Structure formats: structure tokens, C-alpha cells
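Might you be able to review the protein record set out just below?
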Amino acid sequence: FPAGVACDFELLAEGTGGNRIMRVFTDQDGNVVRILSAGKGFDLTFTNVGTGKTFELPSNGSVMRTTIDADGTATVENTGHNVLILFPTDVPAGPSTTLYVGRLVYTVDLNTGVFTLQSTSGPTTDICALLT
């Protein structure tokens, strides 16, 4: 990610492994209304490209429940270990890259791609701050 997008500096995010199962639910007309994804995520490595400093996260379990709303948004509820990257166009405005352990809820405008953070519970880790 270029500087100013995910962190104030250029950030490299890499993932390996992972084992997730995804189920897609449709209505009677075949429209996707809900998506459920669960399992172990990726082993993640975040690197401050300018300094070479890294932060590694082992694969942990998580569940993602996505509901497609009639208003053109999706509501996403994550539980477990999840990293959320917010861009300057999101709400709240990034750049930020944060590990959430617990519950995380956000909406996504499916037309613009803008994420809006709704609520969190549990500990957080500011990955950008760790790499500064």
C-alpha cells in the first residue's frame, strides 16, 4: 500500500496459508443475501517498506458474517482475530491498519467501496504504530 493509504508510510502486507470455509446464501430469486466465512486465516507479515521493520501475526480463527442489505450496503460482523485496513475515504478516515481481537462490525457501501466502522469490542493493536 502506498504511503498514506493503510499507514502514513508504505506498507507491505503478505499472507500465507489459511484454511477457511465459505457458504453463500441466496433468496428465492437467486440474489445473494448472506455470506458466512469461518476458519483459520492467513499467517500475516506487515512490513514498513522504508525501514524494513516487520510485525508478524500467526494464523488465528475468525468468523465473518456478511449480510447484503437492500439499500446497497453490506453489514459485516467479524469475530475472533481480524485485521481491518481503513483508507482515507473510509469512516473514520484512515490511514489505519488495526488488529481487532473480539467483535468488529462495519458496513460497506457496495457502490463506492467506502467502509464505515460501526462498533468494536475487545483489545486492539495499532499495526502502523508498531512499525513506526
In short: Residues 127-131 form the longest helix (5 residues). The radius of gyration is 16 Å. The chain is about 5% helix and 60% strand. The longest strand covers residues 73-86.
